[in-house]
Amino acid sequence: MEQMPTQEVLDSLIESGLHEIRREKSGLLLSGFSAGLDIGFGPLLMAVVLTLSQGSYGDLTTELLLASVYSVGFLFVILGRSELFTEHTTLAVVPVLDRQASIGQLMRLWGLVYVGNIVGGLLFTLLAVVLMPGLGVISPEAFELIATKLVSHQLHWLFVAGVFAGWLMGLLAWLITAAQGTLSRVAIIWIVTATIGLLHLPHSIAGNVEVLFGLFISASITPLDYLAFLSLSTIGNAFGGAIFVAVLKYGHVVRGA
């Protein structure tokens, strides 16, 4: 698996981040909306596995299957070059650290992409819960089980685990830039995002779809559960990607040079 030298990776990240920061508002919103739609296929396939499989959470074979299909949505989004908020917790932060972009520009990018991601996920979930059970491959109970798995933890867990998820997504942005070739990128996306799925870490954008499944299907998932999940996982994701990847890797490359 060929890789760029570290300085070239950083330069490429800065160039990519600046390109995204300077994009038109409508382009960022539409790309974020597309990513919010596409990433929903991962949680949807998780519901299919839980419906058709004899096992459930806690069974090793089922857990591995769930983690594998969870990564499908990320493959669609990242290889399709749509804008994903959690990638930009590293990608768009590096130009700010390099003093080629401002915090205001970073907040603009984050805000537009995040809104697009959330609205796209909302539309995908509405379509899924209305149309998919009628096909006989997904039960409403599977939707509820996926949501409950994320919202049943204490609030501090959502933040701390969200930091780890953001950290991994930041690493993904760095590794994707370093890798050469589509197959290498597919392998990296699968390894990183399947790890997030296997550890049940809260990814704010994929988890938006997962928790909305339960909110629309089950009375046991409340709007407060959804808002708590979304806010804490988002903050944790942003912290993990920005601090543990963008700041640390930028610092060691610059000082190493």
TrEMBL record:
Matching InterPro entries: Aquaporin-like, For/NO2_transpt
An example Gene Ontology CC term for this record: plasma membrane
GO molecular function, one term: formate transmembrane transporter activity
Localization in the cell: Membrane
Superkingdom: Archaea
Pfam families: Form_Nir_trans
Gene3D superfamilies, alphabetized: Glycerol uptake facilitator protein
Keywords: Membrane, Transmembrane, Transmembrane helix
Topological category with respect to the lipid bilayer: Multi-pass membrane protein
Transmembrane segments: 28-52, 64-80, 109-135, 155-175, 187-206, 226-248
Listed PANTHER family: FORMATE TRANSPORTER-RELATED, INNER MEMBRANE PROTEIN YFDC
Protein name listed in UniProt: Formate/nitrite transporter FocA, FNT family
Organism: Halostagnicola kamekurae
